[in-house]
Structures are given as structure tokens and as C-alpha cells.
């Protein structure tokens, strides 16, 4: 059985600023990182590998430099890495993205049965949380989102039982395989690659698949296949706070002022 | 040949053969270690050996060391007497009496006096272990009152008593060659003289006692901690010629092994160190981890290496790795991961060891194995490692914010040829809100003195200190190479650092990458500016009250900077700092070194609490530090101790405040 994990290279959003004139993200000089949720997805896939000996493939759609993200997954121990990169894939919304990823998973499935696909719950740049479910829908897989614990993967019975982390509660659910999981940070602690694995991965092969490989209708992928587009992006205005009291010379007075203010705004109510 | 000679010779030969075999079995194990260069500069090595092994400089740092000094030198002198005894036992015609009479007389007097001194010293040793036992004599597996310790002391005492028995009897019989040269033996002879019938028995019993104890000693020595008699002197010869403030580079290539995960991965010197330890406990008495109830005891690290090596010796001889793990669950011969992660790399253990054992570097070697081969480390470090790799600072703050502290000041970028010094601000000085105030103070002082300096701004990267001490050498090397390239590209040659950790990394660690920088800690540079009159402080600023100074380990012990910060405070305030009980070379860590800054402290007392208590004992109004980590630890410690009224200042802040007051 093959476990496929989807990863994405994202700009380090702590370092992203919005260009006030063009209203777009300033990406120059901003380093790229692996989408943090995806690192937990990789870890879960590797735990399935450790436990059941199944193979793990990591796939990513992105520009050629997204290879670094896949290389990191290789360093952590995935067996195969495929970069889906083609100009026609560019500018994709979540619909077009999930279409390409689903096609790649189907292609992988021609070689080896895919039992589980794992994605991060969302990416930190787009924050839509739609790509995972989009893939599941296209592949007609069961979908379990927001997974924070895997209770059991029963390969012979072809089913999985997980806990989902919802607002204020947990849900324990079971689904038949094949399944797509989207995972939250609480699921696990990603492993840190050993030096040996890093050196191995530096020479490992990252396969690059373009649309010649996937053979998708160019009108259904990339910008052309994307029904949504971003009309405007902006930083929310944040009201500037005021300075209260003198914390340096009169800390107690300042604290009192702060408490009064919080009481006034009803922030301390139980 | 008399029957006595035959028996004596047989026993002697057997003892010597057993001794040689034991020594060979033990010392041959050392060769299972990895290679390490410790044979260079023989002249310097000889002088170190003389200072530490023969003059016992480190031993004498503790008052009771004098007792050891006496025993050591008695042992050296009596080696001659014992040698004579052994040779004479086999060849009764050969003795020191064959020497010129004058020389012989001096020797006899020396033997007599020294034997008595030894008896007293052994008595003191007994009293120390039985009555006033200092706590550091005990470790988990070796106790101060162990049978072994008493056995060895008894052996020595018996040898001395037998010596006086023999020579007293000879004196009483009037057959001693030169009783006038042997005042103590003659005294004993005087006591024996009235009991003529007993004298013969006393002599025989003493002679055989002397012989048998000596044989037992010879046999027992290589199997006990008293093996140090054989190893301590060479260990001082092989000691590090430069203070081990840095760790060696690793070679990253496929198939290589990183760090030390099993005992034979240590170098031969590490293994020899373990055979040189006498379990004196001075390292554990100095260790901030041991002192605050952590799992780490540097002495136990060394003991574990020895025990592990001996336990696994059979396997090693067969070319296998041993079955007793070097790192694993609690047990003799194994180091726990908790112990390995408790080290602050402060170097107090190295400083304390009388025989120049290097404990701390062994811990870092094991950390390397855990991080690089096993990928096992405390959970908090994952964030640190990721932050370092992705954003080149421990907090994971956006690198673009590195130069935000300059907002209030006119600060220029560093330009080679136009700017003299690069001010390497470091992560704390750039991002930590309290340390940023120190950076501003430093900038103010540098400007006031007209120093030409500039910064790299957002191009500055973390030096990687914590990574190296935590054993993440792979990532450290990556960052070091980036920095070395950046410094070369920008033509940096002279650097001022705010933080002693940056100082040591740029100065000592980057040298391994072929980058020779002239690196000064801010306190050094400013002390020099004050001395040369470029900073004038006419009016002394006494507003800081009584100032206690805390020596940062990486400034003091690791880089020998003790006076500059003190001079600076004195120049600014007109009064000398008050010293904590442990200060200077023997200063006690704040708890943040060796990457401990980024880890939780779950066990025992907090190191910073222990340190703050010690500083508060001096009743200071202000505590001065010279390191951003110490700043955080001391400030936090004071808050926890409810001593928030005591201020914490970096030394440069004291000076800056003085300057500002002057200008106001």
C-alpha cells in the first residue's frame, strides 16, 4: 500500500508584508518554508511506514524551487518525491490545484494501490483548507478532516479510526479506506532528520511531472481552470492603542489603570 | 638462597607479572578510542605536567589539597625506599648503603621524616572521610566511605608502620647502619629496647607486613581508582594546551558516524581521562547541574566511561560494540539522556579537575550523537533548531526585524575601508527587548568615544553558538559557513560583540573555518577606551549603590576576560564591585549556557535561583552582568526570589548611564 502525503512550499508568513500600492504580497527576499501543517502530515505518513512498512510518496505542486520542500520530506524518510511543475499549473485556485494533485495521486495509484492520502489541514498562505477535501472528492475517497489522533489503521479490514479536533469537542470517527486525512498540529511532533538522512536526501531523485505526464485539459487547470481569483488583499486596519500610566516609575498605578480599563470594557467578566 | 628470599622473590615476581598484565589489559583498551593529537609541543607539555602533576597547582587550590601534596611527594621519595626494599629482598647484598655515605644519610633522614608525615596525612585523610566528610566525596556509584578508599589508606598506613617497625627493631638491636640519621626509627627503637625478646619478632613481622602490603598494593593498584597513581602524571602531559572552549569540527559525508554513541567512539584521550579520575569530586562540587539537583554529575560521566569501557572490553577485543549502552537508562556505566542535556557547558568541571580531565567536551560529543544520529533531544529544541535553520535566530522572529533597535539612533551600516569595527549585535541584542537596551547603551558609548563602527543590519545572521553546544553540529556548520562567507565578502576584520557567546563563536569556533577575526567583547574595548582617555568620566556615578558582578562563563572562564568588566564598573562608579563567593575562574553559571537557555528546567532547584541567592548574599543594590543570557537569568531569578528592588545592569549600561548623567 502506498501512503501519499501532499506538501506545499509557502512563503514564511511571519515575514510577509503587503505592498500598500499594489495590494499584493511582497514575496521578494521572503524565505520559503514547508507549510507547517504539512510537516505533521509527513510525520503521520512516516509513522504508518514505521508501523506497517508501507511506502510513502510525497507530492507537491509548485515552481521548480519547491523541490527544496520535497527534499526535506525525503530527509525525514519518505520513499519517493514528485514535484508537479508546469507553467500551465500556475495561478491555480483550490479547485484547479486539487485537480492536479488528484491526477497525480491517480497516476501513482496505477503503480501501487493508494490507501491513505494525508494533507495538512490548510496552508498558512492561502488558509482555505479546501485542497484536501477537493482531492478526496475528486478521488472519491472518504475524507476525515482536522485529525488530531489516529486510533487505528486496519489494513486487512480496510478501515481507519481517528479523532477529529473540532471547536470545543472531539469527534471519534471511522471510515473505510481509501481515505484522505487533513491533520492538525496536535497530531504529532515531526521528526528531525538525522544527518545521514539529510546527506542521503541531498542526492535523492525528486521526480518532476509536467502536464505531458498528467495529460490534463489545460482549460481545467492553472489560471484558466480557476473560477476564483483574488480581487484585493490588504492588512486589516488596527486601531492604535494608547499609552496608560508610567510603568517604569509607577508600576502599581499603571497596573491599576489597566485593570480599570479592562473592567470598563468588560474584559474581565467571567 | 634462604627460604625467605625464595618466597619473597616468588611473590614479587608474581605480583609484578600480575601488575604488568593488569596494566596491559587496562591500558590496551585506550587504543580502542579514536585518534586525537596530544603529542605535539613536548616542551609545553612537560611544563604543564610539572605544574599540575608535580607542583600540584590545582590540587592545592583546596586547603585539604596540601594533605594530598604531602602524600604525593612522600610517595615519590619513598618509591626509592620501597625500591630498595624490593631489590634487597631478592639480592640481600644490594642496598642504598652502597651509595656514598653523605647521600645515604640524607636519604635515610628523608625516608624517616617523610614516613612520619605520611602517617599524619593518612590520619587526616581518615578523619576527613569518617568525621568531616565533604558531600562532594559521594557520587551515585562511588562513596567517600567506600571500602576501597579505606583499604588504600590502610595499605599506606601499614607500610609506614611496618617501615618504623623494621627500622626501629634494627635500631634497638644496634645493627642499624646510621641510627643518627633516622630520628623517628631511633625513637621507636628506644621503645623496643627494653623488650629484647620481642625485637626479633617485631622485625620479622614488620618485614613481612611491609612486603605483603607492598605486593598487595602492586596487585590492587591497576584495578582500583588509585590507578591514578599511574595515569595522572601522563594525563597532565596529554592535557589540552589551550582551554577547550570550542568543539572540533565533524566531517559530513555519507557513511560517517557523528558524535559518540558508544564508548569506543570517544578519543583515546577521553578514555585515558576516565582512567585518570580519582573520584575526588571537585568537578561535581563546581557543577551547576549537580549543585541544583540535576541528573548530571560530571564525575559520573567520567566514571561511566571507565565502567562502560571495562564492561564492554570483552566485546571490543573481539571487534564488536559492547552490550552495555553508553547512553540509556540509569545504571553504572551508562549516561542518561537527562544528564547529557543538563550540562550548561560552563566549563567549571574542567577548571576544577586537578589532573586536567576534560569532562564537558565529552558531554557535547554525546549530544552530537543524540541529535545527529538518533534525532533524540528535548522537545523544546525542535523549535529552536527549526527557527535557527529557517530564520537564523532562536526565537524565529523575522530576520527583517534584526535592525529594529536602531530606530532611535543614527547607526551606519558596516562598510569595509570606511568603518573600523563591525558591531556584531547578535540575536539577543537584536530581538530581546531587555538586551536591546544594552545594544543602545553600547551604541551610545561607542559614539561618545568616537569609535568608527557599523552593523550588518538585516543581513546579520545568528552565530550558531547554541547549536554547537547542543550538538547540532550539522546545522552549526551550515550557519558558520554562511557567516564566514558573509564576513569575507564584506571585508570584516575587526568585530565588537555584545554577547560572550557570539564572542567565543566568532573568535574560537570560526577559526576552524580559516577565519581569523580580531574579536573583542564590548567590555574589553570600552575598558580600553576608558584607559586611553577616549572616554572621560570626571564625575563618578554612585547611583547604582553597591554593585555585585556576575562573571559570565563564556566571557570569564572560556575567554579569560575577568578584569575588563570590573575595571569598567570601577571607572564609572568609583568603587570596586563586590564579589560573590564563587567568582572569576570559579564563577557559578547562570544556567543558560550550552543551549540550556532554550530548554525547560524540570528537575531540582533552578540554577539561576542558586546563583541569585549567592549574589544576594553580598547585599547588592545592583547586579552587573556582561551577557544577555545572564541578564535574563539573573533578572528572572530576582523576580522569582522577590528581590525585584535589586537592579540588573550590563556593565556597559553602568557606563552609559554615567555618561548620560554627565551630559545632562
Automatic annotation (TrEMBL), chain A:
Keywords: Electron transport, Transport. Transmembrane segments: none annotated. InterPro entries: ETF_a/b_N, ETF_b, ETF_beta_N, Rossmann-like_a/b/a_fold. CDD domains: ETF_beta (cd01714). The keyword Membrane does not apply. Residues 22-218 form the Electron transfer flavoprotein alpha/beta-subunit N-terminal domain. It comes from the Bacteria. One of its GO terms (molecular function) is electron transfer activity. PANTHER family: ELECTRON TRANSFER FLAVOPROTEIN BETA-SUBUNIT, PROTEIN FIXA. This is Electron transfer flavoprotein subunit beta. It comes from Geomonas paludis. The gene is etfB_1.
Automatic annotation (TrEMBL), chain B:
InterPro entries: 4Fe4S_Fe-S-bd, 4Fe4S_Fe_S_CS, Cys_rich_dom, HdrC_iron-sulfur_subunit, Helical_ferredxn, NarG-like_sf. It comes from the Bacteria. One of its GO terms (cellular component) is plasma membrane. Coiled coil: none annotated. Keywords: 4Fe-4S, Iron, Iron-sulfur, Membrane, Metal-binding, Oxidoreductase, Transmembrane, Transmembrane helix. It holds the Pfam family Fer4_8. GO terms for molecular function: 4 iron, 4 sulfur cluster binding; metal ion binding; oxidoreductase activity. Residues 268-299, 332-363 form the 4Fe-4S ferredoxin-type domain. SUPFAM superfamilies: alpha-helical ferredoxin, Respiratory nitrate reductase 1 gamma chain. The chain crosses the membrane at residues 6-24, 66-87, 107-128, 149-175, 195-221. This is (Fe-S)-binding protein.
Amino acid at each position: 500500500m502506498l501512503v501519499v502525503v501532499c506538501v506545499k512550499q509557502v512563503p514564511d508568513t511571519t515575514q510577509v508584508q503587503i505592498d500598500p500600492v499594489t495590494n499584493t504580497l511582497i514575496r521578494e527576499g521572503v524565505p520559503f518554508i514547508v507549510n507547517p501543517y504539512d510537516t505533521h502530515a509527513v510525520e503521520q505518513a512516516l509513522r504508518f511506514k514505521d508501523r506497517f512498512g508501507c511506502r510513502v510518496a510525497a507530492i507537491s505542486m509548485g515552481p521548480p524551487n519547491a523541490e527544496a520542500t520535497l527534499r526535506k520530506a525525503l530527509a525525514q524518510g519518505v520513499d519517493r518525491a514528485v514535484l508537479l511543475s508546469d507553467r500551465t499549473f500556475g495561478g491555480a485556485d483550490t479547485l484547479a490545484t486539487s485537480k492536479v494533485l488528484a491526477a497525480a495521486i491517480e497516476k501513482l495509484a496505477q503503480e501501487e494501490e493508494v490507501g491513505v492520502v494525508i494533507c495538512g489541514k490548510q496552508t498558512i498562505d492561502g488558509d482555505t483548507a479546501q485542497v484536501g477535501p477537493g482531492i478526496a472528492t475528486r478521488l472519491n475517497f472518504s475524507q476525515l478532516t482536522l485529525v488530531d489522533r489516529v486510533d487505528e489503521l486496519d489494513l486487512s479490514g480496510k478501515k481507519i479510526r481517528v479523532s477529529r479536533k473540532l471547536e470545543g469537542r472531539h469527534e471519534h470517527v471511522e471510515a473505510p479506506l481509501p481515505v484522505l486525512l487533513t491533520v492538525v498540529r496536535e497530531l504529532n511532533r515531526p521528526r528531525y532528520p538525522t544527518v545521514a538522512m539529510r546527506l542521503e536526501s541531498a542526492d535523492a531523485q525528486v521526480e518532476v511531472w509536467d502536464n505531458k505526464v498528467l495529460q490534463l485539459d489545460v482549460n481545467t487547470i492553472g489560471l484558466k481552470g480557476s473560477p476564483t481569483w483574488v480581487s484585493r488583499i490588504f492588512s486589516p486596519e488596527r486601531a492604535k492603542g494608547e499609552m496608560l500610566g508610567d510603568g517604569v516609575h509607577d508600576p502599581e498605578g499603571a497596573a491599576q489603570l489597566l485593570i480599570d480599563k479592562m473592567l470598563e470594557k468588560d474584559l474581565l467578566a467571567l | 638462597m634462604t627460604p625467605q628470599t625464595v618466597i619473597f622473590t616468588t611473590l614479587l615476581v608474581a605480583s609484578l607479572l600480575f601488575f604488568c598484565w593488569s596494566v596491559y589489559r587496562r591500558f590496551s583498551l585506550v587504543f580502542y578510542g579514536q585518534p586525537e593529537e596530544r603529542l605535539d609541543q613536548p616542551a609545553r607539555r612537560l611544563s604543564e605536567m610539572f605544574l599540575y602533576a608535580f607542583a600540584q597547582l590545582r590540587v592545592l587550590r583546596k586547603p585539604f589539597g596540601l594533605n594530598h601534596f604531602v602524600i604525593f611527594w612522600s610517595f615519590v621519595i619513598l618509591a626509592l625506599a620501597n625500591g630498595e626494599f624490593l631489590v634487597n629482598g631478592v639480592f640481600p647484598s644490594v642496598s642504598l648503603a652502597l651509595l656514598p655515605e653523605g647521600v645515604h644519610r640524607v636519604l635515610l633522614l628523608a625516608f624517616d621524616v617523610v614516613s612520619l608525615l605520611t602517617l599524619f596525612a593518612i590520619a587526616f585523610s581518615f578523619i576527613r572521610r569518617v568525621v568531616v566528610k565533604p558531600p562532594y566525596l559521594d557520587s551515585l556509584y562511588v562513596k567517600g566511605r567506600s571500602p576501597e578508599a579505606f583499604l588504600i589508606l590502610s595499605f599506606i598506613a601499614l607500610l609506614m608502620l611496618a617501615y618504623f617497625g623494621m627500622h626501629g627493631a634494627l635500631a634497638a638491636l644496634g645493627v642499624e647502619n646510621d641510627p643518627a640519621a633516622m630520628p623517628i626509627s631511633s625513637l621507636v627503637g628506644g621503645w623496643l629496647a627494653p623488650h629484647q625478646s620481642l625485637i626479633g619478632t617485631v622485625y620479622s613481622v614488620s618485614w613481612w607486613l611491609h612486603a605483603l602490603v607492598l605486593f598487595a598494593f602492586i596487585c590492587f593498584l591497576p584495578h582500583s581508582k588509585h590507578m591514578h597513581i599511574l595515569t595522572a602524571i601522563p594525563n597532565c602531559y596529554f592535557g589540552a594546551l589551550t582551554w577547550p572552549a570550542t568543539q572540533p569540527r565533524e566531517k559530513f559525508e555519507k557513511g560517517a558516524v557523528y558524535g559518540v554513541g558508544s564508548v569506543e567512539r570517544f578519543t583515546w584521550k577521553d578514555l585515558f581521562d576516565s582512567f585518570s579520575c580519582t573520584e575526588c569530586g571537585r568537578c561535581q562540587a563546581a557543577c551547576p547541574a549537580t549543585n541544583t539537583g540535576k541528573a548530571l554529575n560530571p564525575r559520573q560521566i567520567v566514571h561511566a566511561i571507565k565502567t562502560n569501557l571495562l564492561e564492554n572490553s570483552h566485546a571490543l577485543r573481539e571487534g564488536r560494540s559492547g552490550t552495555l549502552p553508553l547512553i540509556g537508562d540509569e545504571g553504572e556505566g551508562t549516561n542518561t539522556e537527562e544528564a547529557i542535556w543538563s550540562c550548561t557547558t560552563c566549563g567549571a568541571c574542567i577548571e576544577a579537575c586537578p589532573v586536567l580531565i576534560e569532562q564537558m567536551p565529552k558531554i557535547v560529543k554525546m549530544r552530537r550523537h543524540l541529535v545527529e544520529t538518533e534525532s533524540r533531544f528535548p522537545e523544546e529544541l525542535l523549535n529552536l533548531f527549526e527557527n535557527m535553520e529557517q530564520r537564523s535566530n532562536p526565537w524565529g522572529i523575522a530576520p527583517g526585524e534584526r535592525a529594529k533597535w536602531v530606530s532611535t539612533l543614527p547607526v551606519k551600516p558596516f562598510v569595509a575601508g570606511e568603518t573600523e569595527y563591525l558591531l556584531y549585535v547578535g540575536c539577543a541584542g537584536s530581538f530581546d527587548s531587555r538586551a536591546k537596551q544594552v545594544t543602545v547603551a553600547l551604541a551610545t558609548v561607542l559614539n561618545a568615544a568616537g569609535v568608527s563602527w557599523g552593523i550588518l543590519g538585516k543581513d546579520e545572521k545568528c552565530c550558531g553558538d547554541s547549536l554547537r553546544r547542543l550538538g547540532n553540529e550539522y546545522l552549526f556548520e551550515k550557519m558558520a559557513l554562511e557567516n564566514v562567507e558573509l564576513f569575507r565578502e564584506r571585508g570584516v576584520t575587526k568585530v565588537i560583540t555584545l554577547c560572550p557567546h557570539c564572542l567565543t563563536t566568532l573568535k574560537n569556533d570560526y577559526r576552524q573555518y580559516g577565519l581569523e577575526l580580531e574579536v573583542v567583547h564590548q567590555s574589553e574595548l570600552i575598558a580600553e577606551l576608558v584607559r586611553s582617555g577616549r572616554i572621560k568620566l570626571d564625575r563618578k556615578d554612585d547611583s547604582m549603590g553597591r554593585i555585585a558582578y556576575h562573571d559570565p562563563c563564556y566571557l570569564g572562564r572560556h575567554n579569560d576576560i575577568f578584569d575588563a568588566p570590573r575595571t569598567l564598573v570601577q571607572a564609572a562608579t568609583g568603587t570596586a564591585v563586590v564579589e560573590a563567593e564563587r567568582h572569576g575562574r570559579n564563577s557559578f553559571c547562570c544556567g543558560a549556557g550550552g543551549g540550556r537557555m532554550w530548554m525547560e528546567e524540570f528537575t531540582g532547584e533552578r540554577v539561576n535561583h542558586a546563583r541569585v541567592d549567592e549574589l544576594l548574599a553580598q547585599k547588592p543594590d545592583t547586579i552587573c552582568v556582561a551577557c544577555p543570557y545572564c541578564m535574563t537569568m539573573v533578572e528572572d531569578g530576582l523576580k522569582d526570589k522577590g528581590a525585584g528592588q535589586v537592579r540588573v545592569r550590563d556593565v556597559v549600561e553602568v557606563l552609559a548611564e554615567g555618561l548620560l548623567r554627565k551630559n545632562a
